[in-house]
TrEMBL record:
The keyword RNA-binding does not apply. GO terms for molecular function: ATP binding; ATP hydrolysis activity; glycosylceramide flippase activity; magnesium ion binding. Its main location: membrane. The gene is ATP10D. This is Phospholipid-transporting ATPase. Its cofactor is Mg(2+). Residues 690-700 have a biased composition (Acidic residues). It is found in: Endomembrane system; Endoplasmic reticulum membrane; Membrane. GO terms for biological process: phospholipid translocation. Its EC number is 7.6.2.1. Keywords: ATP-binding, Endoplasmic reticulum, Magnesium, Membrane, Metal-binding, Nucleotide-binding, Translocase, Transmembrane, Transmembrane helix.
Length: 1337
């Protein structure tokens, strides 16, 4: 399809795949018709209109089965033969519920309407082809194909393709905070091959056609191409697209053409509103409602059968009976009458009450100051409104590592270059000194000591108690972090990743000394001094820091300048630099020739090879590796002969005479070179003077600010700057870099291959400023980079040298990982011009493709990033967040299994696990790094050896109070095998017997598969927590997804159910709020079932004394409003405010949380016990008044009066007994419920004559309440009915101390026996006074 001519095709198949966009000023009628077929920019987020509100809202509410059920009963009551009471009375409950819900929906929709009107009425400048100028139009009038001009700080009204920018380099900066919450500026680029920027754009001159993908919600991808009138094509990508709701920053003017408008924009397609999930309790609630329906049917069948039998046995009745209807048909009618009478058994108001309670719970969670982060000024976000109770039932917690357990504030710690390790000891000491100063303010622990054994970790148990490795932690930001640059007009906000520690890197002295050789005129070419680096080593070092400075997407700015190229430093021309090195007859970059073919004499880098073309011998011997690197495992063979790429200059080793002559020539040539260099001291001094002047100007320049999309990039750029390899500016085509001893250079940026989670690396293609070669610099995970390396073809010694560098670097990487450092490898590749041109054609073809674009781009990247030359590696400190060990310990005590799913190296993950106390000294470490068959054998062997699984609840307690157990560590490759169908059960069985599991080198897909496997196979409640885009799939799969608003953007937060700012907040969120929410809601649901069953049975017992005729002994208004109004508010207060355990006790005794995740509150057993309690209380409430008034001439309504009153008192006092917290608000609500009932029945008794035919309630209640017997009956009934419940509640409160199932070990002695060993012997988690007071109480 890429070869199609410039013409418009309207086939249905094509329109389904692509979207065609042209200028709205086109004269082509067919194209105009096509543009009008696209959606307008007017948005409408409301659900209803004035005419559609009633039918649509009613239809939406009918999706609830309960509403359909009660509408059916209301309609059934209009049938005369089954009518139970007046039809209008029967409709009251369902009308009330539907009306309240409709008013709530109407208010929410009205607020959306106001917001829509405001947004649609915003103004922007749209080009008018009639007026030949930009005119102001409302957003809602913008159409696809319109040209829009925006100024700085204006919001983008639609998805636009960037065609013009006032920036001379065609750059535009946007802020996406309105879209994804990220405040770092994003750089966007004008479409390539458009006219020069900086000159006013004229829409009349735009005659190109845009072919792009159809609207979708993928914010990170945009595929398409622009076809000019000359039939030339240019690929379009995400960097050319300005998204709706983003803000233009630091750019004076931009012009774009609208490609997506209104609801077709990516922002609107991602606006799905609050997340709704179905909680586990809701699923159980539906099952219990079905039981209530079954119970209702049984009661109605009993009444129907009883009525039929009663009619058959009735002879010569003294009252009016329909004798024409057969007993069977009469029983059928009674069945439906009883359905209407006993309808209250199904709690109609329960669903509405649950929604109200959850909103109240969310309000208190969001306003908890303990979950507020004052540094970020952020509080917890509850994005899912209906799963708060699931927080109290979590059994498995899956956590990311970087940014979740750690700060994700990276600090450069150490590095390895050319196979030599530079420990940066001063940098380490600076970090250690910084931490006590930090923690002196907060009172937190300074260093978390942990250790791992030196024994092999492959497929066997290892005791982790022999060595100690410290992982540095920070608990707060230093005061220096607040001392940023003074305020300025642009009001630049420093990213959180740019902490003072990240910027203030202390260089390693040995590495600084070697870099200083670049500026020294007396660089030795031979191995004359062990402390003098060779040209090859200098090349490696320079390329290493150059890669750190330019292989990134960092935006450079300063307090006084916007975020673009800061090019205010006088530069030396490239010709001057080349001439200087030609005069000195030396170039430290000449070693590049060893990896590249010869160049022509006139090429930009021909001068760099002159050193190696001296005489007959073209070999050169690099100096020995410094003595300081010997301890790092230096190669004992120090002499490595490097051949030049010229085959005519190969050394003939067959003649000793030739060798002697060559040596003499070498010595003479070296002496001549030293003489020449000595004569050039003046030139060198001039260069140093110029450098000093340049440094003075640099220091006087504004402080550079780096804004990076990831903390890793910021840390590496600051590390390069510490070694005077400074990134000073960036444009789409050039990078401005300072090199030590050379000065400021403009590096031509040819291409960027951004980082992605599949490749796990990033590359830049540049034109080297000194050699003119096309060079690829790559940085990425060591597991990926190491597989892409290949020794260069050439001398055997050179291959040995590369192998030695690779081996030493791998040792250093393993050492960094054991210290808990994040590791990255840096590599390069020199491309032939022909090779680069060939790759570029394929890359441009892939970028211009719409279909299979990702696959083509991936293939192109793999083709470029091969046969790399390893330069070195970096180790970055990622400090542990504060209170992470305490949080994990508390979660484990609460019975929650913690799994860590990370993409880091195994050693790094183990070290972090030790530091956060997930892996404790008495735990046994089991690592599994093997293939499928080995894994299966290992699982079976481990299963056979573990006769008693070392779970937390059954293992012996250590001296520290922590249970010993197995910790399973599995890598990504093995995890692939473990997730296969035939091995899943074995993997799950093995992991169930482990106290914790650590999955290393896992991909985002593997993370989600692990969570899904545990959730579905073990039928447990899962929670996933992460902070980055790679955690989104895991968060969405889990029952509860929690995003951390950290340094990696807001993708995880936008996909989560709850969003927090620190991992430590999980402790209170789960142990306190989760426990409360589950306990409150579970008890409230049980209370609803209880009160409905209790009241309905009063009507059922009466049927035994009225021939099962469906008659009732109470007023129909009271019958309908009793559960709907008089007793409905107290459960709401209970569900929002009740605290069965104080917060302090829950924090100190995490074992109390286990009642939730083992569902001990709301289980079938408690449901049926509640139903039986309702039956018992209804028996007492009915038969105590019955036997009291037996033989009297009391009427039906008079008999029902004490029954209703007793039922009200029993239900309200039952609530008081169940409540653990009683406040003045509880008192007002309970008192208000009682007063409202008495006020209603008294008014009904005084004024109502015909409001409830055929009965007449006039004077009934006033007469009953004037007699002392009424109050005696009510009091006796209430006491007898509530006595078992009160006794059981007291017994349950006393037994909580001795309940071994709550958290103590099985077999613990009762009456508080488990408290002594668990809390008195524990040195890490002492019980505080509030918890003890609550336990005693």
């Amino acid at each position: 399809d890429l070869e199609c001519p410039l013409r418009f095709r309207t086939s249905t198949e094509r329109l389904e795949r692509k979207r065609t966009v042209v200028s709205s000023a086109t004269d082509d009628e067919q194209l105009i018709k096509l543009l009008k077929s696209y959606g307008s920019n007017k948005i409408r987020t409301t659900k209803y209109s004035l005419l559609s509100f009633l039918p649509k809202n009613l239809f939406a509410q009918l999706h609830r089965f309960a509403n359909v059920y009660f509408i059916f009963l209301a309609a059934l009551n209009f049938v005369p033969v089954v009518e139970a009471f007046q039809p209008e009375i029967a409709m009251a409950p369902i009308l009330l519920v539907l009306t309240v819900t409709a008013i709530k929906d109407l208010w929410e929709d009205y607020r959306r309407l106001i917001s829509d009107r405001f947004i649609n009425g915003l103004r922007c400048q749209v080009y008018s082809s009639l007026q030949k100028d930009y005119i102001e139009q409302r957003w809602q009038d913008v159409r696809v194909g319109d040209f829009i001009r925006l100024s700085c700080n204006e919001i983008i009204p639609a998805d636009m393709l960037l065609l013009y920018s006032s920036d001379p380099h065609g750059v535009c900066y946007i802020e996406t905070a309105n879209l994804d919450g990220e405040t770092n500026l994003k750089q966007r680029q004008v479409v390539a091959d458009l006219p020069l920027q900086g000159v006013e754009f004229t829409p009349e001159s735009f005659h190109s056609r845009i072919e792009c993908e159809n609207p979708n919600n993928n914010l990170s991808k945009f595929r398409g191409y622009m076809e000019h009138s000359t039939k030339g094509r240019v690929g379009l990508h995400n960097n050319n697209l300005l998204l709706r709701s983003c803000t233009v920053r630091n750019t004076e003017t931009v012009v774009g053409i609208v490609v997506y408008a209104g609801h077709e924009t990516k922002a609107m397609m991602n606006n799905s509103g609050p997340r709704y999930k179905r909680s586990q309790m809701e699923r159980r609630l539906n099952i219990d409602i079905l039981w209530c329906v079954l119970l209702l049917i049984i009661m109605c069948l009993t009444a129907a059968i009883g009525h039929g039998l009663w009619l058959q046995q009735l002879k010569d009745p003294i009252f009016l009976v329909d004798t024409e209807t057969s007993p069977a048909l009469a029983g059928f009618y009674v069945f439906w009458t009883m359905i209407i009478v006993l309808q209250v058994l199904i709690p109609i108001s329960l669903y509405v009450s649950i929604e109200i309670v959850k909103l109240g719970q969310i309000y208190f969670i969001q306003n908890d100051l303990a979950l507020y982060n004052d540094q970020l000024d952020s509080r917890i976000q509850c994005r899912a409104l209906n799963i708060t109770e699931d927080l109290g039932q979590i059994q498995y917690l899956f956590s990311d590592k970087t940014g979740t357990l750690t700060e994700n504030k990276m600090v450069f710690r150490r590095c390895s270059v050319y196979g030599i390790e530079y420990p940066h000891e001063e940098n380490a000491r600076r970090l250690e000194v910084y931490e006590p100063e930090e923690n002196k303010v907060t009172g937190q622990s300074v260093t978390l000591r942990s250790g791992c054994s030196a024994r092999s970790l492959s497929c066997r148990s290892v005791n982790c108690n022999q060595s100690s490795v410290s992982l540095h932690t920070l608990t707060a930001d230093s005061e220096e972090e607040q001392d940023g640059p003074s305020s300025h007009s642009n009001q630049l906000i420093l990213p959180a990743s740019l902490s003072p520690q990240a910027k203030e890197v202390v260089p390693d002295p040995e590495l600084v000394r070697k870099l200083d050789c670049l500026a020294s005129p007396a660089v030795s070419v031979s191995d004359s001094s062990s402390r003098t680096p060779s040209s090859l080593e200098l090349t490696y070092i320079t390329d290493f820091f150059l890669a750190l400075a330019i292989c990134n997407s960092v935006v450079v700015s300063s307090p006084s300048q916007p975020r673009h190229v800061v090019a205010r430093i006088p530069l030396k021309s490239l010709e001057d630099i080349k001439l200087m090195f030609q005069r000195m007859n030396f170039s430290p970059f000449s070693a590049l020739s060893a990896f590249s073919p010869p160049q022509t004499k006139d090429s930009p880098r021909s001068f760099t090879r002159r050193l190696f073309a001296r005489g007959k011998a073209g070999s050169f011997t690099p100096p020995a590796i410094p003595a300081s690197s010997t301890k790092e495992g230096a190669d004992p063979d120090q002499d490595v002969n490097l051949e030049t790429s010229n085959p005519s200059h190969k050394l003939d080793s067959s003649g000793s005479e030739n060798e002697e002559n060559n040596k003499v020539e070498d010595r003479e040539t070296e002496d001549d070179l030293r003489d020449k260099l000595a004569k050039l001291d003046g030139a060198a001094d001039g260069m140093e003077t110029s450098t000093e002047e340049l440094d003075t100007e640099n220091s006087a320049d504004d402080e550079l600010l780096y804004e990076a999309e990831s903390p890793d990039e910021a840390a590496l750029v600051h590390a390069a700057r510490a070694y005077r390899c400074t990134l000073r500016g960036r444009s789409p085509e050039n990078l401005l870099v300072d090199l030590p001893g050379i000065g400021c250079l403009a590096v031509r940026l040819l291409h960027i291959l951004p980082f992605d989670s599949n490749r796990k690396r990033m590359s830049v293609v540049v034109r080297h400023p000194l050699t003119g070669q096309v060079v690829v610099y790559t940085k990425g995970a060591d597991s990926v980079i190491m597989d892409l390396l290949e020794a260069p073809q050439g001398a055997e010694q050179l291959g040995d040298r590369c192998s030695h560098i690779r081996e030493q670097t791998q040792k250093h990487l393993d050492s960094y990982a054991r210290e808990g450092l994040r590791t990255l490898c840096i590599a390069k590749k020199v491309l032939e011009e022909e090779e680069y041109e060939l790759w570029l054609k394929r890359q441009l073809y892939a970028e211009a493709s719409i279909e299979d674009r990702e696959e083509l781009l991936m293939e192109s990247a793999h083709r470029l990033e091969t046969n790399l030359t390893l330069l070195g590696a970096t180790g970055i400190v990622d400090r542990l967040q504060e209170e992470v060990p305490e949080t994990i310990r508390a979660l484990q005590r609460a019975g929650i299994k913690v799994w860590v799913l990370t993409g880091d190296k195994q050693e790094t993950a183990i070290n972090i696990a030790c530091a956060c106390k997930l892996l404790r000294p008495n735990d046994q470490l089991l690592t599994v790094n093997c293939g499928s068959k080995e894994l299966l054998m290992e699982v079976q062997r481990c299963g056979e050896n573990w006769s008693e699984p070392p779970s937390a609840g059954r293992s012996a307690e250590s001296s520290s109070g922590a249970a010993a157990g197995f910790i399973l560590v599995i890598d990504g490759r093995t995890l692939d095998w473990a997730l296969q169908d035939e091995l899943r059960s074995d993997f799950l069985e093995l992991s169930r017997q482990c106290k914790a599991v650590i999955c290393c080198r896992s991909t985002p897909l593997q993370k989600s598969e692990v969570v899904r496997l545990v959730r579905d196979q073990l039928k447990v409640m899962t929670l996933a927590v992460g902070d980055g885009a790679n955690d989104v799939s895991m968060i969405q799969v889990a029952d509860v997804g929690i995003g951390i608003s950290g340094q990696e953007g807001m993708q995880a937060v936008m996909s989560s159910d709850f969003a927090i700012s620190r991992f430590k907040h999980l402790r209170k969120l789960l142990l306190v709020h989760g426990h409360w929410c589950y306990s409150r809601l579970a008890n409230m649901i049980l209370y609803f079932f209880y009160k409905n069953v209790m009241y309905v049975n009063l009507l059922f017992w009466y049927q035994f004394f009225c021939g099962f005729s469906g008659s009732v002994m109470t007023n129909s208004w009271v019958l309908i409003l009793f559960n709907l109004l008089f007793t409905s508010v107290p459960p709401l207060i209970y569900g929002v405010l009740d605290q069965d355990v104080p917060a302090d006790a829950l924090m100190e005794l995490p074992e109390l949380y286990q009642a939730g995740h083992t569902s001990k509150i709301y289980i079938p057993r408690t449901f049926w016990l509640t139903i039986l309690d309702g039956f018992y209380q209804s028996l007492i409430c009915f038969f105590v008044p019955y036997f009291t008034y037996a033989g009297s001439d009391i009427g039906d309504l008079s008999f029902g009066s004490p029954i209703n009153t007793s039922a009200l008192l029993i239900i309200l006092l039952h609530q008081v007994i169940e409540s653990h917290t009683l406040t003045w608000l509880h008192g007002i609500v309970l008192l208000g419920s009682g007063v409202s009932y008495f006020a209603f029945v008294l008014l009904l008794s005084l004024w109502c004559v015909t409001c409830s035919p055929p009965t007449n309630p006039l004077g009934v209640e006033t007469l009953q309440m004037s007699q002392p017997l009424f109050y005696m009956v009510c009091a006796l009934t209430t006491v007898v009915a509530l006595l078992p419940r009160a006794a059981n509640q007291q017994t349950g409160a006393e037994s909580i101390h001795s309940n071994a199932g709550v958290g103590g070990p099985s077999g613990s002695t009762p009456t508080g026996g488990w408290l002594a060993p668990r809390f008195q012997e524990s040195q890490t988690v002492p019980v505080q006074e509030p918890a003890l007071l609550w336990l005693r109480r």
